[in-house]
Design brief:
2 domains, alpha/beta, homodimer, eight-stranded mixed β-sheet, Alpha/beta knot
Chain lengths: 230, 230
C-alpha cells in the first residue's frame, strides 16, 4: 500500500439552499452572523424549523459529522506518516480535497466558517499559493480514476461482516485503496457513491457513528502497515 | 479485565471564574445566551480577550477537547459491550461520572449547554431517577480507591515508549485498569493527577491530540479483549 484514501461520502455539508433562504430561522441566524443566507452552512441544530420542507431533510444539515471525522483522521499517526488522503464528497455531489497537513479547526464554529468559505469561494484560503482545502470541478468517479485508486470499499451495516483488522489487511493488499464512510445521519448512500464501489463491508450488525468507523479503521491500518514499529 | 476506566484528566471545562465575569467578552456572550455570566462555560474561542488575565490560561477554556473525546469513547464498540467507564476530572478538581449509555450531544452548542447544567446543578438531568451525568463530591484519589481500580496508566509524551497494542495488553492484564488522558490543550498534568498514577507511558515522541489517544487506545483494547470476534 502506498497510500489509502478515506472518502467521506454524501457528507451532510451544504450552503442553505434557495428554497428556505427566506425562512425566519435562516434569516435570524444569517443576520446575527453578518452574512447572507446564501453564504451560511445548513445546520439542523439551528435551521431545523426551516428544514422540514426540504427533500431528504433527515440526511442533511449535519456538518458536525464531517468535523469530527476530519479531527480523527487528521490527528492520526497514519496521516502524520503521510499514508492517508481524505476526500469529502458532499450530498450535492461536490468533491473536496484536503491537504493532509491542514490543521482542522478544533472549534465547531470556526470549522463551519472555513467550510462556508470553501463552498462560497471554492478554496481555503481564498487566495495565495497555499491551498488547504479545494473544491474540485470533477465528479467522484473521475477523481477515483485520475488518482489511480485501485480498490474501493464501502462501509454499511448491510454489507459482508468483517473485522477491522481483516478489512485493513484487505485494503493494504492494494496500492491505492479507498474506504468510503457515510458522513450523513440517516438514510442510504446515493447511487453515485454506490457506483464507484467494489465491495460493501460491515463492521457489525449495528449502526456505528461515522467518526468511530473512521478512527477504528485507521487504527487497524496503522497496525497492519506497522507505523508504531518504527 | 472486567472493565477499563478512561479518565479525562485536568479537563479544560469550568464555568467562567469570578475574576472575569464582568469582562465585556463574557457579558456580551452571557446576555446573548440569556444566562448569567456565572452559568456559562469558559470557552477560549469566545472569551479569549478576557482570559489573558487568568492564571494558567493556556490550559483552560477548551470544552471541545472533552466533547470529541466523549464522542469517540461513547460510540466505541468497547463501550457498547459494557467494558468502558468514563470519568472526567476537571482542572478545578471536580470528578464527573457519566452513564455509559448516555448519548453525548453531537452538536457542540448543545454539549456546552449540558455541561453548564452539570456544573451548575450537579447532575444531568437536574431531577428524576435517571442520572446521565453526575458530579461526585469526592476527589479523584477516593474514586480510584472506592471503585477498586487496580492499575493506573497516564499518557504523556515524556513517558516510556510503548505501542498501543502493548499498552492495551498491559492494561487488560488487570481486573480494573484505568488510562489517563489529558483533556487540556497545553501544559502539564496537575500534581493531583500524577499522584494517582502507577506508570507513565508515551505512544510516541510527538504531541498527540487527546481524542486520537482515546480512540487509538480503545481500538487496541477492543482487539486485545476480542470484541470483534463475537
Amino acid at each position: 500500500m502506498r497510500e489509502v484514501y478515506l472518502i467521506l461520502a454524501d457528507a451532510a455539508v451544504e450552503l442553505v439552499p434557495p428554497e428556505i433562504r427566506r425562512h425566519p430561522a435562516v434569516l435570524t441566524n444569517a443576520s446575527r452572523r453578518g452574512k447572507s443566507p446564501a453564504e451560511i452552512l445548513l445546520d439542523k441544530s439551528i435551521h431545523y424549523p426551516a428544514m422540514k420542507r426540504l427533500k431528504d431533510h433527515e440526511k442533511r444539515g449535519r456538518p458536525d459529522i464531517v468535523h469530527v471525522c476530519l479531527l480523527n483522521a487528521h490527528s492520526s499517526r497514519l496521516n502524520r506518516e503521510g499514508l492517508l488522503r481524505v476526500i469529502i464528497h458532499t450530498i450535492r455531489g461536490e468533491v473536496i480535497e484536503i491537504d493532509p497537513m491542514t490543521r482542522i479547526p478544533r472549534n465547531y464554529l470556526r470549522f463551519t466558517g472555513v467550510m462556508e468559505q470553501l463552498l462560497v469561494k471554492g478554496r481555503v484560503p481564498p487566495k495565495g499559493d497555499t491551498v488547504l482545502m479545494r473544491r474540485l470541478g470533477s465528479r467522484l468517479r473521475d477523481e477515483i480514476r485520475n488518482r489511480g485508486i485501485d480498490f474501493v470499499v464501502l462501509l454499511n451495516e448491510g454489507g459482508t461482516l468483517i473485522t477491522p483488522r481483516r478489512l485493513a489487511e484487505t485494503l493494504a493488499a492494494h496500492e491505492r485503496p479507498a474506504f468510503v464512510v457515510g458522513a450523513f445521519p440517516r438514510g442510504d448512500f446515493s447511487e453515485e457513491v454506490y457506483g464507484v464501489v467494489d465491495q460493501v463491508y460491515s463492521l457489525g450488525n449495528m449502526l456505528l457513528d461515522a467518526w468511530y468507523v473512521v478512527s477504528r479503521i485507521i487504527a487497524s491500518l496503522e497496525d497492519v502497515v506497522g507505523v508504531w514499529d518504527k
